[in-house]
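// run 5 | inverse folding | seed 20
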């Protein structure tokens, strides 16, 4: 019988911290660009009757001899109606040599953390080193962790948050408002920002690129499904970077008529030093994140190995 390690959310949280995730996500981007991993086509489908989006993302880490998948998605009413997270996901890891499952783990914390890490890695290479002002659009789970990721890399002095609603789960925004640093509207948040982060599930643009100041960087995080659109590109951007063109052009910001010839790079080309990141203080840059499977797998492989070594989790025989 085959032994499978089961890791619940608390156990994953105990092992995985943002600082480590930033390091792993940077590595996984570079490794993918160097053909040290393989990403399989992603599934992303709308479940109309339950207002959900179901997806499967899978990949193969050649060096780790691990194949795996993350299944789940985004149910937009979970938090409001059921006090459950809108994002729901689970991962299964397999031994690449035999196909046997090795680990089943909660992936909600993995998704949150690897996405925060993606924003931090992109900003490290594309934003101005002395960035001080951040505009966050949206105030949910990603808004908060994206800010944490940036605080790891930059000396941020001012944060503007613009969101459609201040819900119960968004206490941290109320705190920011009380400190006088929220914005009345998206434009007010964006115009003075060195780094703009969009984190909403919007299907209608909220931010226009013509609002960006010289030298600004945008991390477009929210668009990860066909139809979603947070950023209206009404003024061209000097360097547009994505995580994976095959995904960005279908489910990311770049699905809305953006031609591949205008893409500057995939992020792995920049982390792998094949192409330069930011070169001047004036250029305007943008990173379109759709979330790629090697981010999940790289982080999950680390969690699995550490849990095994430290005797964390439960083993079942399949
Ligand atoms: N790129 C990736 O790898 C990745 C990873 C995780 C999540 N996501 C995507 O990021 C988005 C946000 O995820 P989350 O977990 O933070 O969701 P969430 O529900 O916790 O937060 C969404 C926030 O957006 C706000 N919002 C919605 N529409 C708005 C609008 N038109 N204007 C201003 N604010 C608006 C909501 O009030 C809420 O604060 C989703 O689209 C999700 O699918 C992407």
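// decoded
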């Amino acid at each position: 019988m085959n032994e499978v390690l089961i890791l619940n959310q608390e156990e994953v949280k105990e092992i995985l911290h943002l600082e480590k995730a930033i390091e792993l996500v940077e590595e996984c981007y570079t490794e993918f660009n160097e053909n040290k991993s393989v990403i399989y086509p992603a599934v992303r489908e709308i479940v109309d009757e339950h207002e959900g989006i179901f997806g499967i993302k899978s990949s193969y880490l050649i060096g780790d001899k691990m194949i795996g998948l993350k299944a789940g998605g985004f149910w937009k009413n979970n938090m409001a109606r059921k006090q459950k997270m809108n994002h729901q996901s689970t991962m299964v890891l397999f031994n690449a040599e035999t196909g046997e499952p090795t680990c089943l783990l909660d992936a909600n914390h993995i998704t949150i953390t690897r996405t925060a890490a993606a924003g931090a890695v992109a900003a490290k290479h594309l934003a101005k080193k002395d960035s001080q002002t951040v505009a966050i659009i949206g105030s949910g789970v990603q808004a908060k962790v994206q800010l944490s990721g940036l605080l790891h890399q930059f000396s941020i002095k001012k944060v503007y948050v613009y969101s459609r609603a201040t819900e119960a789960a968004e206490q941290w925004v109320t705190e920011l408002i009380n400190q006088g640093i929220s914005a009345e509207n998206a434009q007010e948040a964006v115009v003075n920002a060195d780094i703009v982060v969009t984190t909403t599930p919007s299907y209608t643009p909220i931010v226009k690129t013509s609002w960006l100041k010289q030298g600004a960087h945008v991390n477009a995080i929210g668009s990860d499904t066909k139809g979603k659109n947070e950023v209206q590109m009404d003024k061209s951007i000097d360097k547009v970077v994505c995580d994976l063109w095959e995904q960005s052009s279908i489910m990311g910001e770049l699905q809305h008529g953006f031609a591949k010839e205008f893409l500057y790079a995939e992020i792995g080309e920049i982390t792998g030093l094949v192409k330069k990141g930011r070169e001047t203080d004036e250029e305007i840059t943008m990173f379109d994140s759709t979330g790629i499977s090697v981010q999940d797998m790289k982080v999950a492989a680390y969690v699995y190995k550490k849990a095994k070594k430290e005797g964390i989790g439960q083993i079942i025989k399949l």
